[in-house]
Amino acid sequence: MTVLHQADEVLLGFTRALRSAGVPVTQDRAQAYLDAVAVVGLGDRRATRSAGRATLCSSPDDVERHDRVFDAWFGEELPAPGAGGRERPPQPAPVLDDAEDGTGGDGDQLLRVAASATEVLRHRDVAELSAGERQRLAALFATLPVRSPRRRTARRVASHRGAVDASRTLRASLRRMGEPAEIRWRRRGTRPRRVVLLVDVSGSMSGYTDALLRLAHRIGHGSGPGQVETFTLGTRLTHVTRALRLRDPDRALAAAGEAVPDWSGGTRLGETLQAFLDRWGRRGVARGAVVVVFSDGWERGDAALLGRQMERLHRVAHRVVWVNPHRGKAGYLPLQGGIVAALPHVDDFLAGHSLATFADLVEVIGRA
Question: Which helix (H) or strand (E) element contains residue 40?
């Protein structure tokens, strides 16, 4: 594969990330973006950003998403304006010649390094990131491909397969004066299944709370209206769905911070889960939902109570997922009292310490 093709892959990967963030990037726009970057030069960060704004965006909201994904995808490794890529002639042919002789350009190399750094960041433990890395990671949450789980309904809808729809087939035949008509089919329809997120905000989870709430914000805005409910668990239960409805992630997290009174406090998972089920359980949002518990399982209260409440939750919910930040680390064993009590009533036990593991979780939710 030539250097030019590698650079194109990085740029096309950026357009796919932008599409996942909600910007309607068509094939024509993606091609126009590649052509524009070939003209301005890959080494000029400001020109590359401007090329993306001009070819990929169609509204002010698109520009805002573009800049956020651009900073996350390319990082800070691209050279300042006027460096590197400006030495390229503004015609694509010399760029192709450059790639064919295997020399490439500094901009190509920097783009590949930036993409590689982004991939490394996706697998880093979020509790070990610096402030700058956390800022870059925050922008990458927009690239998570959220898909709502579905559930079947009693209502039947037209389909290309399934059961024979006798009434529609007969009506079609009558419209043809009794002549045989094409057989019509029907099947049970589907609708989005509710997702409930329970986020442990105790002291032992403080290194992951910001990332988990950003994930909750992404899942909520990537799903249909009213399909995701988010609560925090600590010494008490707090409903933060309304705060996370704000479109801007930073403003949403700030609003959630004001609503939650027990940041980095103790953990009473059994009691808070009981409060959740008593109010929101059998006849509330948990019934038939995909319920995701984010916690390391450090229970300061009665672990037996947590086990009983998890059993109640498993009977009510469609699927129960437990996400533990330590699950994916070498040498981890589920020995904490809370985890031991909860695991018999959990359908999926997943890691949750990096953006890559968050992507796996989103896939599990979508398949449910």
Answer: helix 27-40
Whether residue 285 sits in one domain with residue 179 = no
Q: Of 276, 129, 280, which is closest to residue 210 (Cα–Cα)?
A: 129
Alpha carbons within 13 A on the beta-carbon side of 179 = 4
At 216-270, the pLDDT tens digits run 999 999 888 889 999 999 889 999 999 999 999 999 999 999 999 888 887 889 9
Residues spanned by the domain of 108: 3-122
Same structural domain, 172 and 205? no
Percent of the chain with pLDDT over 90: 35
Cα separation, 252 vs 250, in Å, equals 5
- 252 and 212 share one domain: yes
Nearest one of 297, 327, 324 to 310, comparing CA atoms: 297
Q: Is residue 139 part of a domain?
A: no
* DSSP secondary structure, 251-269, as one string: HHHHHHHHH-S-TT----H
For residue 319, count other CB atoms closer than 10 A to its CB: 20
293 with 355, same domain: the answer is yes
d(CA 117, CA 128): 16
289, two tokens: 């939902």
Whole-angstrom Cα Rg for the chain:
25
What residue type is 68 in one-letter code?
Answer: R
Burial (CB < 10 A; 0-12, 13-18, 19+), residue 154, is: exposed
Residue-wise pLDDT tens digits, 106-150: 555 555 555 566 778 888 899 898 888 888 888 889 888 898 898
Nearest to 361 by CA among 190, 238, 214, 254: 214
CA dihedral 323, 326, 328, 329 (to 10 degrees): 180
Q: How many domains does the chain have?
A: 3
Element (H, E) at 200: strand 195-200
Which pair of structure tokens corresponds to residue 366? 């979508």
Give the count of beta carbons closer than 10 Å to the beta carbon of residue 289: 25
Same domain flag for 115 and 230: no
Q: What's the pTM value of the predicted model, to 2 decimals?
A: 0.67
Cβ pair 273, 302 in contact under 8 A: no
Please give the Cα distance from 166 to 111 (Å, whole number): 59
